[in-house]
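As a warm-up, study this chain.
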Amino acid sequence: MNQKSNIIQGVEAKKTRNIASQDDRVRCLTLNFFSYKMLIPNASVAEVTELNNIQPLLGAPEWFGGLMKWREQDIPVIVFEKIMNIEASKPQKYRRVLILNTPNNKGCSPFIALGCQSIPSLTMIDEARLAIGSKKSEQATHIKLDGEDYIIPKITFLEDKVSEVMAR
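Now compare it with the structure written out below.
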């Protein structure tokens, strides 16, 4: 297995296989933010929904946006720019959230939410379009997709951080 395959596998993505063609592509959502572009494997996304009222959690770090009701559950909302220490060129006004499945089901919820400004676009990713990015961080995998910089959030990292906050 080559290094490009590890990029996708390293973010809990499950390769989707087209039974007729045995296609090794991964369905992903792409999102454009003011300061960066994000790629999330579709298998990690439970739903994209409108942002509902968020209840702040006293004493939580700045990156912890609060708790949002979704399907009768309190879902932790993460402000990804804050956890990445990215300065946004414009104030972030989230209209939607991505509800992500947490792979290890730690903490109070099997889901976490990431705020987003736009409607995500579905794209099929194959290895020929990927290259390893030059930046490194514990919060995300940095890649180049068709020559452009993208980040893929490390959902297990986010899940661990949320678990720490919720355990307080």
